Amino acid sequence: MSLIFEELDYQQTPLGEISLRRRAEPRLDGEILYEVKLGDEFLMSSLFTEAEIQLARLGLAALAGADFDVVVGGLGLGYTAVAALENPSVSSLSVIDIMQPVIDWHRKGLVPLGKQLVSDPRCTLIHADFFELAASSGGSFDPDNPRKRVHAILLDIDHSPSHWLNPGNKSFYTRQGLENLANKLLPGGIFGLWSNDPPETEFTDLLNSVFNFSESHIVRFSNPYTRGESSNTVYLARRK
């Protein structure tokens, strides 16, 4: 096995030190994995991506019509964004990430899906704070088009609605925060949220107080480390 471990990038960000590494996993017959760490905390791995993919597939499947304009909050390793672009009804995709290094990894081809994302003319990578844009009083994520609303907003940044990557994100998971977000959706539009934790009744009740309809999907996937099954949650809510 020639490749055991390689750190591809290491940068300072507003949230701390972020690093991208590539390594061979001997427990998986040398399978090459890409991993992202923020400080000492693991953020994501190319081994566990099923729920990120399902965030896009379930969210867009809940829409009617065609020519969808979609916003993804959180770029990561790109799995949600690529899954969204696989849907032929998506006409535009804006991916918002607060970490410039993460955007650079994709533009430089340091991660497996980077070239696929940046070469798709429907996709725009935006360096910005998703939560700051979501909290704005305007009806759009696009400062050049303040009246533009979108068909779907898919969010994968925090660990869960009650476990935040940044304590400042807490205000998003409130009635006011979600109402600000809902105002950026077209009527019938979908808000989708990835969570590492099981469904939380308190958050589901909050979604139901703001949106016309909500549901939670438990996404199960194989875990080769435990030789069992793990799961994440995808919340979906439809604008009134």
**Mass-distribution shape:** globular
Order of adjacent strands in the largest pleated sheet: 7-6-5-8-9-11-10
Largest sheet: 7 strands, mixed
Radius of gyration: 17 Å
Determine the number of helices (DSSP H or I, runs of at least 4 residues): 7
What's the pLDDT, averaged over the residues?
A: 95
Q: Count of DSSP E strands?
A: 11
**Class by helix and strand content?**
alpha/beta
Blueprint of the fold:
Elements: E1 5-13, E2 16-25, E3 31-38, E4 41-45, H1 50-61, E5 68-73, H2 79-85, E6 90-97, H3 100-107, H4 114-118, E7 123-127, H5 130-135, E8 150-155, H6 175-182, E9 185-195, H7 201-210, E10 213-223, E11 228-238
Parallel strand pairs: 5-6, 5-8, 6-7, 8-9
Antiparallel strand pairs: 1-2, 2-3, 3-4, 9-11, 10-11
Helix pairs in contact: 1-2, 6-7
What does this protein look like?
- The chain has about 240 residues and is of the alpha/beta class.
- It folds into two domains: about 5-45; about 50-240, Vaccinia Virus protein VP39 (Rossmann fold), CATH 3.40.50.
- Helices cover about 25% and strands about 40% of the residues.
- The chain contains seven helices and eleven strands.
- It has helices spanning about 50-60, 80-85, 100-105, 115-120, 130-135, 175-180, 200-210; strands at about 5-15, 15-25, 30-40, 40-45, 70-75, 90-95, 125, 150-155, 185-195, 215-225, 230-240.
- The strands form two sheets. The protein has a seven-stranded mixed sheet with strand order 7-6-5-8-9-11-10.
- Helix 1 (about 50-60) runs parallel beside helix 2 and helix 6 packs across helix 7 (about 200-210).
- The mean pLDDT is about 95.
